[in-house]
Structures are given as C-alpha cells and as structure tokens.
Design a protein that fits this description.
This protein is mainly α. It has a domain of 102 residues. 46% of the residues lie in helices and 7% in strands. It is built from 9 helices and 4 strands. The strands form 2 sheets. The protein has a two-stranded parallel ribbon with strand order 1-2. Strand 3 and strand 4 form a beta hairpin. It starts with a helix and ends in a 25-residue tail after the last helix. The relative contact order is 0.12. The model has no long low-confidence stretch (mean pLDDT 89).
Length: 213
Amino acid sequence: MNIDFSKLEKKILKFWKENKIFEKSVSQRSKDRQFIFYEGPPTANGKPGIHHVLSRAYKDIICRYRTMKGFRVERKAGWDTHGLPVEIEIERKLGLKSKKDIDKYGISKFNQKCKESVWQYKTEWEELTKRIGFWLDMEDPYITYQPSYVESVWWIIKQIFQKGLLYQDYKVVPYCPRCGTSLSSHEVAQGYQKIKEPAIYIKSQITNHKPIS
C-alpha cells in the first residue's frame, strides 16, 4: 500500500472545515443532553510541544466518544493568560529585577505588557489545534484575564464558602522571597533553587500581657 498519510490527513481536515462537520456535531444534538468538558487551557505565550499533542489527543477521544453517544459537546476553547511565568518573562524583557522595579515602572503598564505577551504564539496554537484535528470552538474562547472570567471564579468560590466546604489550614509550599509569593508545581518546574536570604530578628519583652480567653 502506497498511502501518503500526510496528504490524506489534510484532505480530511479540509472536508471537515468546508462542510462544518464540527459545528454540525454540536448543532444536530439536543441542548437537553449536554456533556460538559472543562479543559485546562494552554498559555499562549509559550510554544506548543509534543506533550500538548498527546494530552489533546486524549481529550479529543473523550469528547468524540460522548458525541458519538448522542451528547451535545460544545468544546469551548480557553486561554490561560496569567501566572508567575508570564510576569517573569516580562521582567526579563524590561530588565526589571524586583518588585520595587515593577512598582517604579508602573503596575498598570506592567500588567498591560503581560496581557500583550500572552498572545505571542496564539497563531501557532491555533494551527496546531487544527492540524491535529482537535475539535475546539476557538471563535468564542474564555480568557482568564477578562473581568467576566475573574468575577465568575470569585462567584464560584463564594458559593463553595457559603456551603461550608472551604476550610483554613496550613500547608508547606515552595516560596519565592523575591516575588513574595508561593509557587505552584508548574512554576517550580521553571527552575526552583534553594537560596539564603539575610534576615533580622528583634527580641523584645512583652508588657501588659493579657491572656487570651
């Protein structure tokens, strides 16, 4: 068999696009039988890699299976547009070394630079998504820096709190003394180092101490 798989894939992708197959897979199914798939969105200021192809293939399998079972799977795309890696990248570009430098530069200006930065590889992400046949509604994505998204997250947290499902506790986490913030596992993977920071401790005697009842 002499099959050009690359040519065959492009032919199928072209057929899907011209005949709006993805759109039909959604519109032809009842809104009363929806399957909601919450995808962890990528950050568009980093190039897509082979691991993204693998993870999206698994996601696509789940959504296509549910579609074949008769569910309406709308597949809303999203963009993760915030986080320490984005801020660090802008600090490097602007030559900033500390939080004081950011304050001096201007927080609003710095935030705007971050928002511009996250779209650096948007085209590459969209092309990858189309090329691997990952059905996704990229025309109306949710964007995590938009006020509507931020407000919706706080609304969800409020609902959880009002139901008594939130609790306060202590947890040991990696910490960045320069940024003054805890670090996620993804941020630690950027290159976590143990360093020594100078500190001053002042010991004094407490007067008029009243026991806590």
